[in-house]
């Protein structure tokens, strides 16, 4: 059985992978500064005999495996950056870089990528087409754009042209041993915005001489709440929250200016654009109606991550095949967090999966917790699924392209 061979090969590299994970964990580097992590990846890939390309968005690395038989190209993405925060785990391999921690599991993702490289190079004869392993910087760099976007601009999906993409994340809500995904949206878009309201300041006792930006701001906040309830299709989802309302210095003074800050989460571009357009109209017209002036500064952050139906079907088959029928989880609801893998998914048919590290009777720390850690058995599980998927994908008929 070919699955037995994969299981055996993965078991052989498990310790090697864990060692890499711990080493990466010990020396975490924040977004756009993944210099040592990146050169480590380069040296491992080179030592394994992969074709290696460097310099995508500075620290991005690509390893290419060309199968024995030619064909299309599948991209597998692994993010490498850590977060700027102090680690509180007490692990023997805890961060040595003060103020930086691998609290989102990207150390694990990078180790999974190295494991997949080590396995696929041994299974080269079984691969149809090419596999491009994409080690990406700056996933956590929202809302600056994220490494995915800039690697694409630097041509990572070209030569050989990538036909489909796969991404994953270690996930606490899924049990260890399981992997899950879903068709359509799996991660939200995440857009921050700022509203600046200019009125006319005056003494609190002379409102007739003022244009009160606090009253305008209050009206804007209320009117914005009608977007989700009145403009968004009830079968679609959106979140609009004002998290900051800043204005005024004294109880008896009407200020000149008020600033509001908030965020929008959506799961498709149509709703995202509609929400943006309505925010702009409401902000500008409400202020104008009340004699003031307001401007919206809206930052389109990561878009929603949308999984392709055929790629999900392929992933589903690969997971069930290698891990067993019961270890596939059909995810019901997308997460409200953002993920810059979304940019890849906008370019080519893609699937993004969640790899469980949750425990039955024990709480595990979620990503971005200073106590975050995961069961390293999840590394092997992810490698098995990716290898199986990569081998299966090569055999998808040319005329049955995923789209
Ligand atoms: Zn994160
Ligand atoms: Zn992450």
TrEMBL record:
<feature type="binding site">
    <location>
        <position position="368"/>
    </location>
    <ligand>
        <name>Mn(2+)</name>
    </ligand>
</feature>
<protein>
    <recommendedName>
        <fullName>Peptidase M20 dimerisation domain-containing protein</fullName>
    </recommendedName>
</protein>
<dbReference type="GO" id="GO:0046872">
    <property type="term" value="F:metal ion binding"/>
</dbReference>
<dbReference type="InterPro" id="IPR002933">
    <property type="entry name" value="Peptidase_M20"/>
</dbReference>
<dbReference type="InterPro" id="IPR017439">
    <property type="entry name" value="Amidohydrolase"/>
</dbReference>
<feature type="binding site">
    <location>
        <position position="169"/>
    </location>
    <ligand>
        <name>Mn(2+)</name>
    </ligand>
</feature>
<dbReference type="GO" id="GO:0050118">
    <property type="term" value="F:N-acetyldiaminopimelate deacetylase activity"/>
</dbReference>
<keyword id="KW-0464">Manganese</keyword>
<feature type="binding site">
    <location>
        <position position="104"/>
    </location>
    <ligand>
        <name>Mn(2+)</name>
    </ligand>
</feature>
<feature type="binding site">
    <location>
        <position position="140"/>
    </location>
    <ligand>
        <name>Mn(2+)</name>
    </ligand>
</feature>
<dbReference type="GO" id="GO:0019877">
    <property type="term" value="P:diaminopimelate biosynthetic process"/>
</dbReference>
<dbReference type="InterPro" id="IPR011650">
    <property type="entry name" value="Peptidase_M20_dimer"/>
</dbReference>
<dbReference type="Pfam" id="PF07687">
    <property type="entry name" value="M20_dimer"/>
</dbReference>
<feature type="domain" description="Peptidase M20 dimerisation">
    <location>
        <begin position="193"/>
        <end position="287"/>
    </location>
</feature>
<keyword id="KW-0479">Metal-binding</keyword>
<dbReference type="Pfam" id="PF01546">
    <property type="entry name" value="Peptidase_M20"/>
</dbReference>
<keyword id="KW-0378">Hydrolase</keyword>
<feature type="binding site">
    <location>
        <position position="106"/>
    </location>
    <ligand>
        <name>Mn(2+)</name>
    </ligand>
</feature>
<dbReference type="InterPro" id="IPR036264">
    <property type="entry name" value="Bact_exopeptidase_dim_dom"/>
</dbReference>
């Amino acid at each position: 059985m070919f699955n037995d061979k994969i299981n055996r090969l993965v078991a052989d590299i498990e310790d090697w992978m864990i060692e890499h994970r711990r080493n990466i964990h010990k020396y975490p580097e924040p977004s756009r500064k993944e210099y040592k992590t990146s050169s480590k990846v380069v040296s491992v890939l080179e030592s394994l005999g992969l074709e290696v390309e460097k310099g995508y968005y500075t620290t991005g690395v690509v390893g290419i495996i060309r199968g024995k038989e030619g064909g299309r190209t599948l991209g597998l993405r692994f993010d490498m950056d850590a977060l700027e925060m102090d680690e509180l785990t007490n692990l023997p391999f805890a961060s040595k870089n003060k103020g930086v921690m691998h609290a989102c599991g990207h150390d694990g993702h990078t180790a999974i990528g190295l494991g997949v490289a080590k396995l696929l190079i041994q299974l080269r004869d079984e691969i149809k087409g090419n596999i491009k392993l994409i080690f990406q910087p700056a996933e956590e760099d929202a809302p600056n754009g994220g490494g995915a976007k800039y690697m694409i601009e630097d041509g990572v999906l070209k030569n050989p042209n990538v036909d489909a993409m796969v991404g994953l994340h270690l996930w606490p809500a899924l049990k260890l041993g399981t992997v899950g995904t879903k068709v359509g949206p799996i991660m939200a878009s995440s857009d921050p915005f700022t509203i600046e309201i200019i009125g006319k300041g005056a003494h609190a006792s002379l409102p007739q001489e003022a244009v009160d930006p606090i009253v305008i701001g209050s009206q804007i906040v209320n009117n914005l709440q009608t977007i989700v309830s009145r403009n968004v299709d009830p079968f679609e989802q959106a979140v609009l929250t004002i998290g900051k309302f800043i204005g005024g210095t004294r109880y008896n003074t009407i200020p000149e200016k008020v600033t509001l800050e908030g965020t929008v989460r959506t799961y498709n571009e149509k709703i995202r654009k509609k929400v943006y357009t309505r925010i702009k109209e409401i902000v500008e017209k409400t202020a104008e109606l009340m004699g003031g002036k307001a401007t919206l500064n809206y930052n389109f952050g990561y878009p929603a991550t949308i999984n392709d139906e055929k790629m999900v079907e392929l992933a589903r088959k690969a997971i069930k095949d290698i891990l067993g029928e019961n270890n596939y989880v059909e995810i019901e609801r997308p997460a409200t967090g953002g993920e810059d893998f979304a940019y890849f998914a906008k370019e080519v048919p893609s699937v993004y999966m969640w790899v469980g590290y949750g425990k039955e009777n024990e709480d595990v720390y979620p990503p971005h917790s200073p106590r975050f850690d995961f069961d390293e058995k999840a590394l092997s599980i992810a490698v098995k699924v990716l290898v199986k998927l990569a081998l299966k994908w090569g055999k998808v008929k040319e005329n049955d392209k995923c789209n």
